[in-house]
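During the no-cost extension, the postdoctoral fellow (Dr. R.K.) reprocessed legacy sequence entries with the updated structure-token encoder. One reprocessed record is reproduced below for audit purposes.
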Amino acid sequence: MICVVCKEPDNHPVNSPSHRFPFLRKKRVLLFAVVAAALIFGAFHYDSTFRSWMLSEQSPHWKHTPEHAASVALSKYGDWIPLMGITAVAALIARGFGNRKWTKIFVTAIVASALAGILATSCRSLTGRTRPIATPPITPGWYGPYHNGRCLIGVHAYNSFPSGHTATAVGLAAVILFSQPLWGIPCMLVALAIAASRLYLGQHNLSDVTAALFLGLAVGWGTWRIAKRKGNIF
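Re-encoded structure tokens follow.
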């Protein structure tokens, strides 16, 4: 485990607007919640329309296209374990070069990604929502953790909401985005590409990904704020 012992200076002085006017921060949080709720609600409304459009864009041989191959690769390497491995290596490299700032960022990103993934997995294990491309076909719906005497926790076909891939990828990228926007933007674009791959492959509904996106952003922001305030997350 990497231990970060050097406390970074606080870039937000006491006289900054967020300190002098804490209600401004509360307003931003409220705005985020309102926007998230509105977009998630809209995504639920357009789930069927989006899925129909996606199917209409896929040719009969879509599984042999470069788009499919790219989506499979993004889903494979955008899962929690590969993401954690890549970020852990980056943290080790940063520590090897004596860069405490980036070591802290990468470690914080790992923590945020793990928390977002745990929350998403816990939720989707209980919702019992069917995946669009479930095989054999299942009547779409929300079946909960148990259905007809069968435990659905951990059953892939019934664990669609929210997207675990999206939550973990966005949670990780969000920390880098808030810490170093110049580097965080491409990281977030990769996270969004991972989310898009899950939609393209029919593993998730639009609302699954939208809800996970805001979950990852919220967890990433919260984890980053705690790490920034404490200087050391461990």
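The longest helix spans residues 100-127. Residues 1-17 have pLDDT under 50 and may be disordered. The remaining legacy entries will be reprocessed before the final report is submitted.
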